[in-house]
Amino acid sequence: MRPERFIVVLLLLALFCFLIARDMKEFGFSYKDVSAREAKKLMDKYPDLKIIDLSGIYEKGHIPGAINYYIGDGSFDRAVQQLDKKDRYLVYYHADRPSIEAAVKLRAAGFKKVYRLQGNYQAWVQEGFRTANSRKA
What pLDDT score was predicted for residue 15? Predict the structure, then answer.
């Protein structure tokens, strides 16, 4: 192999390793818990961040831009099969257990960039961030 090609291959390999290591540092083999303030920063930094409201009371209030896949009726499980594994996801509910369950399911299904809103919807409201009311998406 010519030295130029060898150097290019090494550089590409190094870049690939760097990108994998960066995601591993942030997510490891699990999802990442984020505060409401951190979630807001993620939304600003990644406008294509997919926000999933797992609750059955979506119409009473949710984070703007959130899509509702209710975890209690199987909607979330069906949606997991259709979602793009390359995207970033933020999940939340109104209690820890269901949001943790959803984050774990996403990771187990091969999603690499999964965040869980620590303190759930209530934490978002307590920070005074804008909420929305509407019909199911």
Answer: 56
Query: What gap in Å lies between CA 122 and CA 118, rounded to an integer?
Result: 9
- Contact between 106 and 31 under an 8 Å Cβ cutoff? The reply is yes
Prediction pTM value:
0.77
Dihedral sign of CA atoms 65, 21, 34, 116 in order: positive
Predicted confidence band of residue 25 (pLDDT cuts 50, 70, 90): very low
The total number of residues written for the chain in this structure: 137
Long-range contacts of 74-80 (CB under 8 A, 24+ apart): 76/52, 76/102, 76/105, 77/105, 79/52, 80/105, 80/106, 80/109
